[in-house]
Specification:
69% of the residues lie in helices and 0% in strands. By secondary structure, it is mainly alpha-helical. It starts with 5 loop residues before the first helix and ends in a 5-residue tail after the last helix. It has one domain.
């Protein structure tokens, strides 16, 4: 017997659960909305707690800005990105015709979003076709928010051997956090505005996922 990969196992379990839900829904035990809200709340809470713990530990270990406001915003942004990513996976799972297709499509598109989110490639160097994708890219808003949260208003110094220029004109090549933000070419939104955009994406993905699940459970294939 061949080894079962985690993605296939998860798809199989999800398919069984969906069959049970479809049967109990037809029996009038609960509505699609009740099931969707209950499962979303249960899974999102676990994901959020894990992401908050990770973010708090990472912030302390890496040594980011010693500001309670910035630390709180960092943790909130990481938590929001995690929940939006989970909502995206839920949406894809509901839109795909079966769980095996979802387990293939979801990581492929998620990897594309990660690559074009600004961390690995500058947004200015992306092809024009990716400009529209950036509008719905959770990593674009998350990365821009984290960069602005850490570097905005930051004064930078350097050692003597790092100076550029000659004589009295010697200066640091990068003297402020705003220069770093400009070099990374992230969006012009504030951390709070990027966080708001993430929350809108979360709501959009959840609504699309619910609409797809509601239609799927009402289809003849689920009867």
């Amino acid at each position: 017997m061949g080894a079962v990969t985690p993605s296939v196992l998860h798809a199989t379990v999800s398919g069984i659960v969906l069959q049970i839900v479809a049967h109990e829904r037809r029996a009038g035990l609960f509505s699609t909305g009740a099931y969707f809200l209950a499962r979303s709340a249960a899974e999102s809470l676990l994901q959020l707690l894990c992401s908050l713990a990770f973010a708090a530990l990472a912030y302390a270990l890496v040594g980011f800005a010693r500001s309670y406001a910035q630390a709180f915003l960092f943790v909130a942004i990481v938590g929001a990105v995690t929940l939006v990513a989970e909502s995206y996976v839920v949406m894809v799972g509901c839109l795909m015709p079966d769980e095996r297709s979802a387990s293939v499509v979801s990581p492929l598109v998620l990897a594309l979003l990660m690559v074009s989110g600004g961390l690995f490639i500058s947004p200015a160097s992306l092809p024009p076709a990716f400009a529209l994708l950036a509008k719905a890219n959770l990593f674009t808003y998350g990365f821009a928010a984290l960069v602005a949260n850490e570097f905005a208003g930051l004064a930078l110094t350097c050692e003597a051997h790092e100076m550029v220029g000659r004589g009295r004109e010697q200066r640091c090549p990068v003297e402020s956090g705003e220069q770093v933000i400009a070099q990374m070419q992230t969006n012009a939104l504030s951390p709070a505005e990027n966080l708001g955009a993430l929350l809108l994406l979360l709501l959009l993905f959840r609504l699309l996922g619910f609409a797809a699940l509601h239609r799927r459970l009402r289809s003849p294939l689920q009867r």
